Amino acid sequence: ILSSVGLSLGAVGKAQSGAAPPAPTPLLVAADLRPGTDLSGPWHYSVDPYRAGLAGFHGGEPNASERRWADIDVGATMRKGDGAMFEFDMDSAPITTLPASWLTHAAEMRYYQGLVWYQRHFQAALQNGKRVFLRLGAANYKTRIYLNGTPVGEHEGGFTPFAFEVTKLLRNGDNQITIGVDSAVTDTSVPPPVTDWENYGGITRSIRLIETADTYVDDAWVRLTRNGALAIDAHLDGPRAAGRSIRFFIPALGLSRAGTTDANGNWRTTIAAPRALERWSPERPRLYDVAIEAGDDRWRDQIGFRTIETRGSEILLNGRPIFLRGISLHEEELGVSPARVITPAAARALLTEAKHELHANFVRLAHYPHDETMVRAADALGLLVWSEVPVYWRISWGNPDTLATARRMIAENILRDRNRASIAIWSIANETPITDARNGFLTTLAADVRRLDDTRLVSAALLTERSTANGHPVMTMTDPLAAQLDVMGINTYNGWYGDDRLADVPAIEWRVPADKPLIFSELGADAKAGFHDARAMPQKFSEEYQADYYRQTLAMAAKIPNLRGLSPWILKDFRSPRRQNAFQQGWNRKGLMSETGQHKLAFDVLTGFYRGKEDGGR
Ligand code: GCB
């Protein structure tokens, strides 16, 4: 699999690297279901706008006598007086509750972008033969971790998990953990500094110590292949990983298979799918308890089995054509002051609106990997998922470090979520202007996705150009990247941005390749909930205008032969600092609901359309 996928697709330009994408280690797949110690709760925090904690006294690199305060067990060494800086005193710094973005810690943190230090103590009881990993579900954007004064590791990227082994650094009894999170995004980061969403700095997802046996299942991928077999890949990590007995189970199917790992700790097997296996679908989201045992380690997950593929311009779920009745959402909980805390209840609240109010069968989790809780909720509720990385707008396409960051992010996302039946589409980019450098960058990402997961579809939200012909508007998509995608995504805002009148929208002609499925990955218009305009031509930002926009755009969509779904923008109003007019006041108002969940008129328009599609309608 490692050889040639990207390079042979050459129509667009060459992939910048044919090597395998870097896999994060340790991976700890399905870590959220492993036993461990939860470190969420009260933490001290301290802002560090000059990043002094990383520097010497005069800035720059610290010299030998000027150890960075962050490298030091602050409480203990300050008492010994060994030269530690006394400008930071975490033990008496203010306290907040993690996980949560710092935007809500204090009023003055609202627009802070930079470095914040967090610290807390916890008790540990060391056990022989056990390994311990510190795992963060995500921290935005750059993270540095210290345990008992020793640097543990660093991570870049705000939306994917990472873990470090801390077995040898843990002390029996009291331990001190310090985490520096820097939210600053730069021209070379992923995403870049200008986006249309709030840059929620901080530790926004779970913080846990995960305990495993000395040799444990680090990675496992259990899926239904397109030719109807259950395929299982497992990887053990630890001193006894090679030549180890391993066993796979699905108790509800009475299925069990034993084997032995190879010299690298890998085991792979395929099993004909049992007759009794129920396929996962939005209508019947059947999940099975799955386990893998190796020595004294037991790995478990809950997994659904289904196939997703394309045939011509159709998208097939379990072999049958499906229309994706979607909605987009950001990772932002309902409420007047979201802190990007996605608890299982918050995820359910959002996805239940999509599933049971809107009659959706599909969600676009924009514009970055969402909390694992969200994807698990989609698995359980029965919603197909478009999952993406924040390769958004103006990325530094020519910068090899930026490419390396994006590739690692894609790998972290796919390896975290390959076992989720809900995920149907991996998307590699959103609205990225076409250049040779960009084409090469995205070719590399598309090839990475196919190497890591050959069971799902690859997509991207592509840009279009507007022209006119015989007096009607024409939208054309000529992006060469389309040749490498299974599904083309297009964001359309005709009738909102630009000069098209709403009445002209249904007549728009779409010129896009017809040989593969197209989905409108976005469409939308702002409305302030409760702002009404009953005139025949309602003004923008009224609920009536937004509802009309949906009616006209859906009429337009009905005329596109290969349109196989849509994920309008967006379920709920979301915070965006670039939206400051009187209706917006810091919020993008394209939600079908307000930030507190009040439905706007357009919600019902889309619900009506989706109910019509539910009965097999196209
Ligand atoms: C887009 C972007 C999305 C924005 C949206 C808008 O095309 O992909 O991130 O929020 O338009 O509201 O303009």
Automatic annotation (TrEMBL):
The keyword Hydrolase applies. This is Beta galactosidase jelly roll domain-containing protein. It comes from Sphingomonas alpina. Pfam families: Glyco_hydro_2_C, Glyco_hydro_2_N. Residues 309-553 form the Glycoside hydrolase family 2 catalytic domain. It comes from the Bacteria. SUPFAM superfamilies: (Trans)glycosidases (SSF51445), beta-Galactosidase/glucuronidase domain (SSF49303), Galactose-binding domain-like (SSF49785). GO terms for molecular function: hydrolase activity, hydrolyzing O-glycosyl compounds. Residues 40-211 form the Glycosyl hydrolases family 2 sugar binding domain. PANTHER family: BETA-GALACTOSIDASE, BETA-MANNOSIDASE. One of its GO terms (biological process) is carbohydrate metabolic process. Belongs to the glycosyl hydrolase 2 family. InterPro entries: Beta-gal/glucu_dom_sf, Galactose-bd-like_sf, GH, GH2_Domain-Containing, Glyco_hydro_2, Glyco_hydro_2_AS, Glyco_hydro_2_cat, Glyco_hydro_2_N. Keywords: Glycosidase, Hydrolase, Signal.
